[in-house]
Design goal:
heterotrimer; A mainly alpha (289); B alpha/beta (247); C mainly alpha (328); A: 289 residues; mainly alpha; ABC transporter involved in vitamin B12 uptake, BtuC; two-stranded antiparallel ribbon; 10 helices; 2 strands; 75% helix; globular; C: 328 residues; 76% helix
């Protein structure tokens, strides 16, 4: 093992980058769960859809075109899903929701294969963020720093919206107590739709920024799903703080596990999840006391 | 048979039971009265172990059961019914009673035979069905019978464990006066060696079945004595009837 | 509670007769499909026992099947055991691991139970995927088939193997049905409906859940042994959570909590898979659409739908005992 400072900085940045990507995905999923008690296993498929849209648009509109349009496209798809499936499944219980969204994953994987084919798609890093930056003695790709920055920006924006605005207060009330929110005269239906669509847009954004660093394949949504679920269960379903803590835990355990305990690495995160579920069945920072 | 000493439970700053001392003799029928929020159901929850008291102790047949788990207390012969029906929906009434009897006979984990067919369980189901007037409905699904029948089953499930002490939480809540009276007739016909603690709202009916009466107010015992004394107690009228008329 | 209604017995009889006749007349490819159906059928019987009757929706049953398959193969290849003791050992190990998982997850309900079992399943998958003892990514080959030559039965013949597979399905069904009519099975159904009340009646809830999960795990382990003997090659893919997810889909398509329905589901699923994938490479999408349609229709799968239709028809002819009582 290295005692070199550069090694630790590098791993730390890698862990942060993974954490922020997971945060973009898990925050939408967890707030949707907190508010609507809906488990959307197809959230990863929305992320994959975002990546595909971004990768295919980057040719015509450049990276930034995809960066803006992919979240919008995924949000539109989210709205369609909301009105066709999600709304009528809201009170159906976790089992039915898991199954319907599991079915959606099947459909989504084959739909992407049908539209974009089986071969991985690549997409380029934008010109502005090409190259590396010297940071605390290590050379680190600027684009990955951009992902970290974007994650932190979204985190800051969401924290601000949730704590300072009226819609944020409504969402917090809704997570705390469904009936109370309705009693306060909040248009619950519209709030649900907005939160669901926003969560989808964030998943699309995650896909768009991940496209240049990961290979875009039909099963990328399925691959990211389990890490995302682990994040929100460790963090505690329904809470923004939980999503942050869960993402950081996952990112760091995964990254440092790979370099420090390579033989146990893949088991480590599952063991951690099992431990959390045994000791604190509701996760570390559940939304409801 | 059942005794509590200085039983206290608070949620934050609110005391829901405060130094409650109760002592029930074998075969005693005691009715607990008290306005809404007096801590009656919370007391039951502590007696059976569904919530843990902050301090004080509970004895069943001389044994300290304060730290014992719910299932272990049940196996010692403590049984309860709930104010809100807590049945096995979707099963038949026979299956509801049979399941209760099977678990109480220690056959809830068995692998080699069907306890519902065993003579002891069949016999218990028959007896309990007679005790709570469910015999005609045994093969009906819980979902298909009236609310009043479900109320009777609620108590029937508790009786099917063949307990030494049974706690009934407002067994007649939500049923009409006729059915309520009928239920009290059933109650009086229970074996005399069964110790019964009942939470009841209707005072006349309470006086009808009680050997002794305890009145709770804001988590404290404010009256403990014979029904005649309770009936003439001014304190009881102030607290309980006042609250009753307000409601 | 589980009952053998005339419809269920008839369906079982038809499926048994159909598969036996098919095993006699089918060609090599048909026999392969039959074995595939049998493995899936045993797995979904295991899953329906806990998910359908006990409400414990597990996403680790694929992994439990994998434990059986790997334990069998390693015991036979590395420890030099003959096939029968290796099978017994593998099934016992699956049961023990399932007992531990069931005990640990006993407090978790709903989505938390699903997630917890997912975590344990993936833990096993990752472990096997990385472990050199278990061949890692490459898997293991060379598992023996059960040697029944003393009885004059040769399981290397694929027709004989198909009969053996059908017999194991019958065995799995028998174990599940007997469990459901035991005290534990009665408690399991009660737990699904009202865990709190059953605890108040004196049941040690965690032990009942863990024991039921162990029996289900043993059946899943049996499916694993059969899978290992069928292809004589196993890979970590067997343990992935998607296998458990697919098993859950089959249970749902067949009819959750009917025990008979999931077997019907397994037949339909494997046959459809082969039929559809010969027409289009997108058979997963079609399964997904069918799944969404079935869940959204609120029918309890194919078999549940048939049961409900027949119940509705008998109701219109004469009032059932239930209604006669409710009217009284």
């Amino acid at each position: 093992m290295s005692t070199d400072l550069g090694f630790w900085v590098l791993q730390m940045l890698n862990a942060l980058q993974l954490s922020m990507l997971l945060f973009l995905l898990s925050v939408g999923l967890t707030v949707i769960f907190g508010l609507m008690h809906f488990v959307n296993l197809a959230h990863g498929s929305l992320y994959a859809f975002g990546a595909y849209v971004a990768a295919s648009l980057s040719g015509a509109f450049g990276y930034w075109g995809g960066f803006v349009l992919a979240p919008l496209a995924v949000a539109a798809l989210g709205a369609v899903l909301y009105f066709t499936l999600i709304r009528s499944m809201r009170r159906a219980g976790p089992m039915a929701q898991v199954l319907v969204t599991f079915g959606l994953i099947f459909v989504a994987v084959d739909a992407t294969r049908l539209i974009w084919g089986d071969l991985p798609m690549g997409s380029a890093v934008p010109k502005t963020f090409e190259g590396q930056l010297a940071l605390l003695g290590v050379q680190y790709p600027i684009y990955r720093l951009f992902i970290i920055g974007l994650g932190l920006t979204v985190l800051a924006a969401l924290t601000l919206v949730l704590s300072r605005t009226q819609i944020g207060a409504m969402i917090r009330a809704g997570v705390d107590n469904d009936q109370m929110a309705a009693c306060l005269g909040i248009n619950v239906e519209r709030m649900f739709m907005s939160v669901f669509v926003l969560g989808c847009a964030l998943a699309g954004l995650a896909g768009a920024v991940a496209a240049p660093v990961l290979s875009v394949t039909p099963d990328m949504g399925l691959q990211i799903l389990i890490p995302t679920l682990i994040v929100i269960v460790i963090g505690g379903l329904g809470s923004l703080k939980g999503a942050v803590v869960g993402s950081l835990i996952f990112g760091f355990v995964q990254t440092f596990g790979a370099v420090l305990l390579p033989t146990l690495n893949s088991v480590l995160i599952y063991a951690l999840l099992a431990a959390v579920l045994v000791i604190r069945p509701e996760g570390l920072l559940p939304a409801k006391g | 048979m059942l005794e509590t000493r200085a039983l206290t439970k608070s949620f934050g700053a609110i005391h829901v039971t405060k130094g409650v001392n109760l002592k029930l003799e074998k075969g005693e029928r005691r009715v607990i009265l008290g306005p809404n929020g007096a801590g009656k159901t919370t007391l039951f929850n502590q007696l059976v172990g569904e919530i843990t008291p902050n301090s004080g102790s509970i004895y069943l047949d001389g044994q300290d059961i304060t730290a014992m788990r719910v299932a272990d207390r049940a196996r010692l012969g403590l049984s309860r019914s709930y104010q809100k029906n807590t049945l096995f929906d979707g099963l038949t009434i026979r299956e509801n009673l049979g399941l209760s009897a099977a678990v109480a006979l220690g056959r809830g984990q068995g692998l080699w035979s069907d306890p519902l067919q065993s003579p002891e369980v069949v016999e218990t189901v028959r007896e309990v069905a007679a005790q709570v007037d469910l015999a005609p409905y045994l093969d009906a699904s819980v979902n298909a019978v009236s609310y009043g029948i479900r109320r009777q089953l609620e108590v029937g499930i508790a009786l099917a464990t063949r307990p030494k002490v049974i706690l009934m939480d407002e067994p007649t809540s939500g049923v009409g006066p006729e059915m309520s009276k009928g239920f009290h007739r059933l109650l009086k016909a229970l074996p005399r060696d069964l110790t019964v603690l009942i939470i009841e709202h209707d005072m006349d009916l309470a006086f009808d079945v009680a050997d002794t009466i305890t009145v709770l107010n804001y988590g404290e015992v404010v009256f403990d004595g014979l029904p005649e004394a309770a009936r003439s107690s001014q304190l009881l009228k102030d607290i309980y009837l006042g609250a009753w008329e307000d409601a | 509670m589980f009952r053998h209604t005339p419809l269920r017995l008839t369906t079982l009889g038809l499926m048994a007769a159909g598969s036996l006749i098919y095993a006699i007349i089918a060609g090599f490819f048909g026999l392969e499909i039959l074995a595939e159906i049998a493995i899936l059928a045993i797995l979904v019987i295991a899953l329906d026992l806990v998910a359908g009757f006990g409400g414990m929706v597990s996403l680790c049953h694929g992994a439990l099947m994998g434990v059986g398959a790997y334990a069998f193969t390693v015991a036979a290849n590395e420890a030099g055991m003959t096939a029968l003791p290796a099978m017994v050992l593998a099934i016992a190990l699956s049961a023990a691991i399932a007992f531990a998982i069931g005990a640990v997850c006993a407090r978790s309900i709903g989505i938390y139970f699903i997630m917890a079992t997912l975590a344990f399943g993936q833990m096993g998958y990752s472990f096997v995927f990385q472990s050199s003892l278990f061949g890692g990514d490459d898997g293991l080959s060379g598992a023996p088939r059960l040697d029944l030559s003393a009885l004059g039965i040769d399981l290397t013949d694929s027709r004989t193997f198909a009969f053996y597979a059908i017999a194991l399905v019958a065995l799995a069904y028998l174990v599940a049905a007997l469990t459901l009519r035991s005290g534990l099975g009665r408690s399991l159904v009660g737990l699904h409906h009202n865990e709190k009340r059953l605890r108040a009646l004196g049941l040690t809830v965690w032990r009942a859940k863990a024991t039921a999960f162990a029996i289900s795990g043993a059946i899943a382990g049996l499916a694993g042994c059969l899978a290992a003997q069928h292809t004589q090659y196993i890979s970590p893919g067997l343990m992935s959570w998607t296998v458990s997810g697919e098993a859950l889909v089959v249970v749902i398509l067949g009819g959750l909590g009917t025990l008979v329905g999931p077997i019907l589901g397994a037949i339909l699923f494997v046959v459809l898979k082969h039929e559809i994938s010969s027409i289009t490479p997108y058979w997963h999408a079609i399964v997904g659409l069918i799944l969404i349609a079935v869940v959204m229709s609120r029918a309890n799968g194919v078999f549940g739908f048939i049961e409900a239709r027949i119940a509705a028809r008998t109701r219109t002819r004469k009032p059932t005992l239930k209604e006669a009582d409710a009217d009284a």
